[in-house]
Design brief:
alpha+beta, globular, 11 helices, single chain, Jelly Rolls, three-stranded antiparallel sheet, 10 strands, 19% strand
């Protein structure tokens, strides 16, 4: 989304002005037709992805079926604790060796020389045990939700640190404003807490698809300017916080639901891992990690992306 102050700068550069106008039009059109802030193109790409991949018939699992219905309806579903504790301990052990190391993680955001978030970008490689999170239970759920085969875009992990109030008032440091992700809307994301997370740790927060549409209809502007009172935007009757012990998991359609990271309180931080899934014509292979596209998949050419995902249009 384009900030207002960028319009003034753009007048000095006609090409930039055209680009900003296109971005603004895409954003507002997405809100108008799809009632989210992912943008028109990303919504259309999501629709195209679903239309261009073949449906498959899978035997329904009762537990998976109920969760699928919840995800389709609400846009998020609490997966409770689906992973073995010994696996989580191993992942956490590997993660802690990497997250503060400049050679294995990078500074995601900083301000005046202070780091506020660090990320491990290719966690499926650098945290090998994270590959074991793709359990049979997860596979069954994702295929039942998509009604198609799927591929894994990426596995990433990061740490958010506490932010001083004066700094948070000045700028957004790590997706702490309400927004929908600007990606292909067919994507779903699995969030796994890598530590015990309470409200003090600045948990991930989300609102349902229905509430997101309601807020858009009420005049929600953008992550930079809500245009609505905070008591409406953050009505406690609609906001859900992803708190819980290590391993607590949630699957979310982040492109269709308003969500944000909250700020850890002074002296606290939050560690989290995410896995993104997208529909495909090809079953997930045993060596899927060798073909993982990565977080920057949007930068791939259309032809290369289609080849990697086996999406034929």
């Amino acid at each position: 989304m384009v900030k207002k102050n960028e319009f003034k700068k753009a007048f000095k550069d006609p090409k930039k002005a055209i680009g900003i106008a296109k971005t603004r039009l895409d954003f507002e059109s997405g809100k108008l037709f799809f009632k989210n802030t992912a943008g028109l193109k990303n919504n259309l790409d999501g629709t195209l992805t679903n239309l261009s991949t073949k449906k498959i018939t899978k035997k329904s699992n009762s537990l998976s079926h109920d969760r699928v219905l919840t995800l389709k309806t609400k846009g998020y579903v609490n997966f409770e604790y689906p992973f073995d504790t010994s696996l989580l301990d191993q992942i956490q052990k590997e993660y802690l060796l990497l997250i503060e190391n400049d050679k294995t993680s990078f500074v995601r955001t900083e301000h005046d020389g202070k780091v506020y978030s660090r990320m491990i970008k290719t966690a499926w490689k650098t945290i090998p045990s994270s590959q074991k999170l793709i359990t049979d239970e997860i596979k069954i759920f994702v295929e039942e939700y998509f009604q198609r085969h799927f591929q894994i875009l990426d596995i990433t992990a990061w740490r958010n640190y506490s932010v001083e109030t004066d700094v948070s008032n000045e700028k957004e440091l790590f997706a702490s404003h309400w927004h929908c992700d600007g990606k292909n809307t067919s994507i779903i994301t699995l969030f796994i807490n890598l530590m015990n997370v309470t409200e003090n740790n600045g948990p991930f927060m989300i609102q349902s698809k229905e509430r997101t549409k309601e807020l858009i209809k009420m005049g929600f502007g953008s992550r930079h300017e809500y245009n609505l009172p905070m008591n409406i935007v953050e009505d406690s009757n609609h906001v859900v916080s992803h708190t819980g012990k290590i391993g607590s998991s949630m699957i979310v359609t982040t492109e269709e639901c308003l969500h944000r990271a909250s700020h850890p309180k002074d002296g606290n931080f939050r560690d989290i891992l995410q896995i993104r899934f997208i529909p495909s014509n090809e079953p997930l292979k045993d060596d899927w990690s060798d073909h993982c596209i990565g977080i920057d998949f949007e930068k791939l050419s259309k032809e290369k992306l289609q080849k990697q995902l086996q999406i034929h249009t």
